[in-house]
Request: fold
Amino acid sequence: MRRLVLPTLALLIGLFAWSGSAHAFCGFYVGKADTKLFNKASEVAIARHDKKTVITMANDFKGDVKEFAMVVPVPTILEKDQIHVGEPAVLKHLADYSAPRLVEYFDENPCRRYEMMEDRMGALKSMAPASAPARERDRALGVTIEAQYLVGEYDILILSAKESAGLEMWLTENGYRIPSGASPVLLSYLKQGMKFFVAKVNLEEQSRLGGTHLRPLQIAFESPKFMLPIRLGTVNADGAQELFIYFLTKQGRVETTNYRTVRLPEAQEIPLYVKDKFGDFYRDLFTQQVKRGNERGVFLEYAWDMNWCDPCATNPLSAEELRGLGVFWQDQNGRTGKGQAQNVFLTRLHVRYDAARFPEDLMFQETSDRGNFQARYILRHPWTGQDDCPAAAAYRQQLRDRYEREAQTLANLTGWNIGEIRKTMNIASAPVAEEKKWYQRLWAN
Reply:
């Protein structure tokens, strides 16, 4: 019997339902920290309004597609037209747009007065666009195939079951590799009245379509529940898993209700050399924050109205792209395929989880908070001019202190060795004005 492996995403994704402007940041965007920095990373986008939900699930499966399978608890029996195959490029655009970012500032000549960055800020804003025996066996196990569809390159089944042991045995007999000990978790979902969305690749259809990579699966439904079943994915997982969740809502920011939602440190000034190793920096920063949260936090990486961005890691998604991710309410504003987003707020959450520290499924709520937030880190280039004035002399004296603060900040954020940081920064050779003798400071000659 052919065995099918459940990828990380299949084990952790379930269905959701859920019951201020900020000052401009300015600066030049120079880099981002994308999801590829992290191993075992899954991505989900959820568009939600008035109990209507569209979920886009990115398949992180690696290997022979013959071994692919997905099992997802769902609150209702889905009809065929509630299931769709999405475009991976749109989800990637969403991930790039909301990624933690690195920006640059340049110190002005302290001997002159400027209106800081006004022209640059205006330029940045302009960037936004934007068989009969088998059936007998099924009945014996208490499993019913409620629906069966071919959607794109996927064979889809919607299952219901009377008890978890029968469901577990049915899945095993039909080639789905279920984690050992999954029966109690399956039982908890059955007690909630949930069904199971099961998908695997139809090899003939995939060959006919000419695809080489698995496209995201999308499902649309209505439900008052607002939860993400992740426990099935932790039953026999090999180490912690990463999950990135992108919420597209009409009202405001989304947060967890049964775990702490933690804002990452932001707007921190760090040494210039981090520009060439921003990926390492952000990965280690995130690990430090997970440890400080006792490995039980859900971290906010981005929250922003999708009409604009500052600074932009990429252009905001178009209305057509957002509709492809399930944002259906834009039509109520008379907007069609082209143009900018209307009444769409994006929240990006990042969680590293395992069974010991996340024993409960994730629960969420949408808030009315529309305040902007982004995990943004700053490189500040020093002024290197030769102008001589009291303000320039004071500026040069203050640089050494600034470099030391940047070194301390980097060590605190990442856990990197402070001595190595100072050595890499070459702080000892930082431009510092020679200190005057006491009597030279007495009179200004």
